[in-house]
Amino acid sequence: MDISPPHAYLKSIFRGVKTCTNVELINLTLLEADFKWLPPTGSDVSWIDVSVTPPSGQLRGHERTTVQISLIASKQQTIQDFRIPCLVDGMPDQLECVIHGDVQGLTVLVNSAIEQMTLSSNTQLELTMPLTATASKSCKSIEGQPISFGEDVGLYAPVQRWIEIVNPTPMVAELTTRMVNFGLLTQIKLSNSYCPHLSIGNEISARSQDTVETTKTERLDGVEEKPERRLLYDWCRTFLSNSRGACIFVHTAMTSEDGIYYKSVSKGSNRVFEPVSSWMIPAFGRLRLCLVCVADLWGAYKDCVELIARSVSGRRHLDPEPPTVNLPVQFTVIGCPILLTATSPFGQITNSVGRKLRSLSQTMEFLERDLVISAFTEQAKRLNVRFGDRFIGSSSVNRTVRLHNSSNQ
């Protein structure tokens, strides 16, 4: 009786994932022989679980059979001393199948993308220069490709950028995202179902369109219906309420098991956003994240997105994991959050696009609502104050202009 090959080298062994290989058991004689696989031996037995199929049997003369060996390694290291003995009736010595191989850990590829994503187009990103983060690296963190939201980000104008994380291993991974400086400080729960048009997938865009139409057609008792611009302003203010001029958060996530068909797993669809979010990446799968930036104060901003990948089957703080991926973020916000609104009678103060101004008899609450509707119009950057015709020495004329700080600072 003989084993072919007597030494099996496994090329792709991953921690916590079953790996299979086949060997042949050959009867070199004309006589029938019974065989039985025994428990493995060697110094690496403690962290490797193995099963042999079939565990026992009988071979006729010159017969051969295929034996499948399945093993699961719980440590990320080299298999150096692991043998599976086989007892054959009539043979003084046992046969042995020696297993060798390097047990690998989780690896992820990170790439940032500017193009917009949809769930139907199944866009294939060309990972020309992906950043590789593997558990075999001893460093704690590595820096990836910078993400730029642009040099002309407007006030209360959401901007989106995408990043893609590829899992080339058979291990299921968990990815945690966190913004270092300008992320969410607390959990955000949206009070309504409005979502701005961010081109983040047909399903989400359709939901946004339906939401806008529903909001426009429905009226609440005693409350004036809100136009699109007011809805967008309120949506941005929700994320900027505790910010320092800008806020960056993960709005949408899409996963794919085959790299072709994607499905939305967005937590934003539930109208709940977390300061630290976690996502599952299937084996050999991909995860696409949509980062959204909103701001209410001008200036140059710098931040960093932390991507922490961990294997689901790993033992916390015991097994090696990929280093944290840091993606630098930069953008420049333009525009002034100080807005002008008039409280004098209509006709005395108008803006450059003829904005309708309310009289003093109307409430300040209405002025605040009207401010957002009109003040963000690009052409309404200037107020024209009219003092009328006056004679020399006549009494002074007063006009009232209010300054409104729309930012959180």
Automatic annotation (TrEMBL):
It comes from the Eukaryota. GO terms for biological process: negative regulation of cell population proliferation. GO terms for molecular function: tubulin binding. One of its GO terms (cellular component) is cilium. InterPro entries: DLEC1, Ig-like_fold. This is Uncharacterized protein. It comes from Paragonimus westermani.
